[in-house]
Design a protein that fits this description.
The chain is α/β, with parallel strands linked by helices. The protein contains seven helices and 17 strands. The strands form four sheets. Strands 1, 2, 3, 4, 5, 6 and 17 form a seven-stranded mixed beta sheet that branches. Strands 7-14-8-9-10 form a five-stranded parallel beta sheet, with helices on one face. Strands 11-12-13 form a three-stranded antiparallel beta sheet, with no helix packed on it.
């Protein structure tokens, strides 16, 4: 595992994350901007962007203008799927498969997944439910695994899991990919509940139960409470103060992950606020 140290890690490729990175660049912070996709699929697929000053075109037009600005201002983006953020020794460790990033402060700008979770999913988090195949796949060597696949772009993670698991039952909540691994079985029924005792034992559907030693939920946004242990949330959103701070010292949040309205202009404002707050926090550490 390789590890890289920064003063600030910004997690999330959308408008909130980009604005935080833009401000961090202007403040000359030692930062890293991480996310699965720069500016996000939501923006890129928007037919028309409303309610954002000076923008009068499609999401693709908006993204093109942002790209030009990012290049001019030297705002760097690092593609990464963060599987977990852990506080340790006054710093944060961000896991990303075989890589890890450490930072003294973090801005969480991961957005929200509008599709709801399956009953029992949050209750069995850490007891058989995971949101990162690369992070936890090796724990299920020779075992039976269920996957809730919300987006076909995560098919590679399913194939990765197939290298460890004896069998994978994949609940395809999107058009079913053509899996190459012979131990992956696509299911069309919807998962209704994750069941078990102290750990996951099965997934209940309208047609019965599917046995599983573990469940991997692969979708575009990991619940913040699953991504960061001990983080206070309310209604699936991160609880923040006006300066973007959370209950965890050194961790800030911005954008859709903090709650409605889910608007680009709100995300940009909160990303800016969080960056200035993180900068002020880092200065207090330098004085200590």
């Amino acid at each position: 595992m390789t590890q890289t140290k920064f003063d600030l890690a910004i997690v999330g490729g959308g408008i909130a994350g980009y604005t935080a990175a833009l401000v961090s660049e202007s403040l000359k912070l030692n930062y890293v901007w991480l996310g699965e996709e720069r500016f996000g699929r939501k923006l890129l697929s928007a037919e028309y962007v409303r309610n954002y000053p000076a923008v009068t075109g499609s999401g693709a037009d908006f993204a093109a203008a942002l790209s030009a600005q990012a290049e001019k201002e030297n705002v760097r983006f690092t593609p990464a799927r963060i599987g977990g953020i852990f506080a340790a020794g006054g710093e944060f460790l961000l896991s990303c498969g075989q890589e890890a990033y450490s930072a003294r402060a973090v801005i969480l700008a991961t957005g929200v997944e509008l599709r709801g979770s399956v009953k029992g999913e949050s209750e069995f988090l850490g007891k058989g439910v995971s949101y990162c195949a690369v992070c936890d796949g090796a724990l299920y060597r020779g075992k039976r695994v269920a996957v809730f696949l919300y987006d076909a772009k995560y098919a590679e993670e399913v194939e990765y899991l197939a290298g460890f698991a004896a069998r994978i039952d994949c609940f395809c909540l999107c058009p079913a990919p053509d899996f190459k691994a012979e131990n992956v079985f696509s299911l069309s029924e919807r998962p209704l509940e994750v069941t078990g005792a102290e750990r996951v034992r099965a997934v209940r559907t309208a047609e019965g139960e599917v046995s599983a030693d573990g469940v991997f939920v692969l979708k575009n946004s990991t619940p913040p409470s699953a991504l960061v242990g001990g983080l206070q949330t309310e209604g699936g959103h991160v609880k923040v103060a006006r300066d973007g701070s959370t209950n965890l010292k050194g961790l800030f949040a911005a954008g859709d992950v903090t709650g409605k309205p889910y608007q680009y202009v709100k995300a940009a404002g909160e990303g800016c606020t969080a960056a200035y707050s993180a900068s002020a926090y880092l200065k207090t550490l330098a004085k200590a």
